[in-house]
Amino acid sequence: xxxxxxxxxxxTAAWRAFTRRRTxxxxxxxxxxxxxxxxGALVGTEPTGGGLFAEPAGYYIAGYLAVVVLFTPLSRVGxxxxxxxxxxxxxxxxxxxxxxxxxxxxxxxxxxxxIGLASILxxxxxxxxxxxxxxxxxxxxxYLAFAxxxxxxxxxxxxxxxxxxxxxxAASNGVALPLLFLSETFVTVEMLPSWFVPLxxxxxxxxxxxxxxxxTYRPTGELPPVGGTGLVGADPYLNLLVLVxxxxxxxxxxxxxxxxxx
Amino acid sequence: MVIRAENVxxxxxxxxxxxxxxxxxxxGEVFALIGPNGAGKTTLIRALTGTTQAEGTxxxxxxxxxxxxxxxxxxxxxxxxxxxxxxxxxxxxxxAGLYDESRDPDSVLADVGLTDSADTHYENLSGGQxxxxxxxxxxxxxxxxLILDEPTTxxxxxxxxxxxxxxxxxxxxxxxxxxxxxxxxxxxxxxxRVGLLADGKLVELxxxxxxxxxxxxxxxxVVEADDPAGATRALERAGYHLLxxxxxxxxxxxxxxxxxxxxxxxxxxxxxEGLLWRQPGLDDVYVALTGTDVTATGDPITEGQS
Lengths: 262, 306
Known about the structure:
The complex is a heterodimer of chains A (262) and B (306). With 262 residues, chain A is mainly α. Chain A has helices at residues 2-19, 22-43, 61-86, 89-93, 100-129, 140-161, 165-181, 204-216, 236-257. Chain B is 31% helix and 27% strand. Chain B has 10 helices and 15 strands. Chain B starts with a strand and ends with a strand. The interface between A and B is medium-sized, with 28 and 36 residues.
């Protein structure tokens, strides 16, 4: 059993703890749904010919997926770290064979499942309420998994830095909102000042959004090719490679950052 | 030797939490650290389990705490609060699942007297039941060393006695137990040896009997009076030596002093509901050595305070 058994035990407990918090479950799925209904159906039904949400509906699918990939792990893992610290659970776990990396991996697995389900819901909803087209690529799966791992690691760091659950919520919102709108998700490169564009390469979410879009979005007619800028351009494999490397780094730092007692 | 602490020191800013603490615990021994809240008990437990860094030498199972075989250790942290929406059985199964070899969660539930509440979510259990689940989480791996930080806090007297019996049973099978408590009766009942902690220092060490013999002082008479202040004045005037007591008026005296003491109270017109003769205990030892009494909630009362 050993490592596999420990991770399985932690994953099972974390899954039960999450699914039994009905409010958390509801809002985990409600959040992306309301985003799609507002920006995909309400705003997007009458494109203005410029400005926000003027691209074809399919362009924004990567953004909708980015919403859940970013917010859910960041706030969930951050809050879970705060809950564990408040309840002295890490102190207890420090005397068991479960390592910090195994704990974080278990939380990541739960988040991958939750966000996988939320992503299916998002795709179904987008296709129903908008005229978007989506070319499914198997690359979507590793993109989702590694992005979730990345932001679980980031959430663990926030949970370590913030001193309470309230602090985690505030910190995750403070980090997630700028990342969401400045990572080529909903705001196109053309709408940003030229000096800012290179800074987008610093956001991990940029590689997720560019990669997912490059793998699944097929613009038609006279629309220009998408995602041609940035460190690794629009190649979905190169963007995935960068995302994997960042995930490993954030996961490792996040696991190391998990508190024990002091 | 299962646990060894040598000149252990720990500061938090200007606050000295541990100030040169030294003691050891032998295999199969039940060792209790006693003291009020803030005495340094939890910091010492954390130093011994490697969850806080302290100066000095700390050994657990013959090596550094971080290197100790984790399947041989069972820890109940202070104010431990596991996942609230898991049932008692699920919680024990979860912690059991972290070990290669573990006990059947149902047998642990039976040991802590929670068989009937096995399927109740933790958040819906009573305070005492919650604490018993927490104790159970420290037992799932059948540890060689059981470290319990305030194991019976919040548990009703019956539940406390049940846990005492459980700990005694484990000790009988050779489990080494280190526990902290502010309940002196608990330490007196369970411990082979106790260490008295005050302001981060280990002020005395020994078996309860030795410590009481050495420092417990005389037996006492406890007066349950409607007017404690009046009783105090009357007994002071009569020349009795008053002892600190959380709820009643107590003087250093034996059973033969009862008639004279009753006369002193009658002469002063002080009504009383009872006179109780009590032998010295660890609480008296603690007061004698530190000048501090400990309330039922673990808070310290310095001698002279009401």
